[in-house]
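User: Hello! I'm new to structural biology and keep hearing that structure can be predicted from sequence alone. Could you demonstrate with L,D-TPase catalytic domain-containing protein? Please show me the input and the output so I can see what each looks like.

Assistant: Of course. The first part below is the input, the amino acid sequence of L,D-TPase catalytic domain-containing protein. The second part is the output, the predicted structure written as tokens.
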Amino acid sequence: MKRVTARLATAVLAAVVGGGFGAAVMSPASAGAAVRTAPVTATVATTVVTKAAAASCATGKYQKQVEYWLKRIGGYGAVTVDGKQSAADCAAIVKFQKRFGISPAKGLAGPTTWDVAKRLGMTSTAACKAKKKGITFCVDLTHQTTWVMKNGKVYLKPTVTRTGMNNYETPAGTFTINKRTKKEWSDPYEVWLPYWQRFIGGRGFHQTTTYIHDKWRGSHGCVNLLEQDAKKYYSIGKIGMTVKVVGRRPGT
């Protein structure tokens, strides 16, 4: 059915652009008629394409919940909170999934997408109590999110993180960045840590080396980041900058 719909949309568009479903040469009179009716035909084509796009995006178990949080967060496109998948909903969900490294990014509102959207939506940037001057890197252990404040205002919006699992907890408190290397080798775990910014002991920010949404895996105390976030944090960070860690990771 999807293939038939897609072919129909292509055929309709061809009629608008090429002058008909065939390649016949039109007379001036018939050409004028085609121009006059083209807007109507184009509208039909757009409708067919939109319906095909919506049909290609399945409705997930948490559709309405995801719609609610995406609407509240904003920035990912128009969504309607009705629990029904539309082309606009699908586009917004896919954009959100791609931004936060959720796989597969196909618009299905599954438990991971719902969990990430809810955590981001429930994050209070004021909880960091950032300094009024300068940069403060904030980590919310409770919601497993992180963001950056500058001069007391949000500089980088909350994004996802993964902190220390049970027995390897990331401690709450106020710290300072004391070491930075673009690629740090971890002796205990024999792995490279890209965009490393240490702030206490052997713990620091770095790009995740595994799928960040594998929550049960956790980290060994570090603040894991998606690649794009790790790069951005590294570009902002400097020795001596403040890191504030608040809350407590569930299960630790």
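User: So the tokens describe the shape?

Assistant: Right, they're a compact way of writing down the 3D structure. Reading them back into a model, for example: The helical segments are 2-18, 28-55, 63-73, 87-99, 111-122, 227-236.
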